[in-house]
Amino acid sequence: MTHTVEKIGGTSMSRVNELCDTLIIGDRKGADLYGRILVVSAFGGITDLLLEHKKSGKAGVYAAFASSDSDHGWHEALDRVSDAMVAAHKAVLDHPGDIERADAFVHDRILGARNCLIDLQRLCTYGHFRLSEHMLQTRELLSGLGEAHSAFVTTLMLQRAGVNARFVDLSGWRDEGDVSLDERIKGAMKDVDPATEMPIVTGYAQCAEGLMREFDRGYSEVTFSRLASLTGAREAIIHKEFHLSSADPKLVGQDAVRKLGRTNYDVADQLSNLGMEAIHPKAAKTLRQSGVPLRVTNAFEPEDPGTLIDDQPADGPNVEIVTGLDLFALELFEQDMVGAKGYDSAVLDILTRHNVRIVSKVSNANTVTHYVDSSLKVLRRVEKDLITRYPSARVTSRAISMVAAVGRDLNGLAVLSRGLNALADHGLEAIGATQGPRPVDVQFIVEREVMKPAIKALHHALIENSDRKMLKAA
Fold it and tell me: Please, is 255 exposed, middle or buried when counting C-beta atoms within 10 Å of its C-beta (0-12, 13-18, 19+)?
């Protein structure tokens, strides 16, 4: 256990030339350069162009190909990807020879993908084949282009700087083998020696399980965690463009936030549930079961150790982070629900069928309310199915926000009552509040327009004031 496995996200990758001089090489020389396996995401914005925009949903190549009645839409989208890839590597590469090789790499991969999609379209003009049956594989093919490009470019850059870097492509490009994720990783790393070379590994890995099927765009962290587990890493490190802090510094102020420094996987899971992923929950589970600690650092402050995430309990009760998420409250009211069984499972079946993510839920004698992360369009379909299932029920949905106080141990802190008082002191009202018996988070439901002031009020009361009391006691 002498090496680390380190992941660099897409936003940071767009400044990989800066990271080359600091995080990746810095003052290291000789053998000190090695003992590190780097897993890279695609350059910022590339995956959005390949699939669809993560936030706006604007169609990329995949969405255009899936819905196109003609060739023009997805061909033009693929041309935009090619242009964006070339622009991305020209922004970070200096040597003309490296740029020429990167250009050729992009041309080869884009041409190969284009020919593959043309052949697939042609094949599906025959009645025996359905395009819908091949869309998952198409999504995986396209997604892998981004990571392969960024890994290849990073390898060129490091080799130019004198580092013995090796491009490790897990994307299965022109590979006939149908192998598992573990077999894919083991096969690619078989002859790699991290002690004498620096492997630059694609965040996407083609495998029989189909990472996109379960994890969609969270696949790179799954690859990263499995690589750390299989190679017996000393530590798994995720380099982000910010520190894992007690709140969004843009919201509560740079001077008010605290870097976490240390937390555990319980907190990481809660953050994932609230849309503030330190790491994908399934990736965290892999590391946890393998006994590999996770560290989250700021890629542009390489001298700072960041935040260590492991299985250790807290030294004492403490609120560590306050964060929020816009949601919908989906409410099913049915007078006949009292004493009856099956309502919960029926609602869950419908939400699962529409692929709606449940963040939390509450219920009483005749009402079940699910707080869900969904688009309004999908939610309307859910409502329609619920009304069909329960014609006498009243089904409503409401835009709300959830603000949560999270920590490894909240015992004895009266977070629920203190939080409600803090909101009231700032003239804010909670629609609802929930605290489970496991003392790791307290959830406050508020109107959407007050989410940000609610986060500031709770952070001030539960973290900043607590820090001041501790200083006075010391």
Answer: exposed
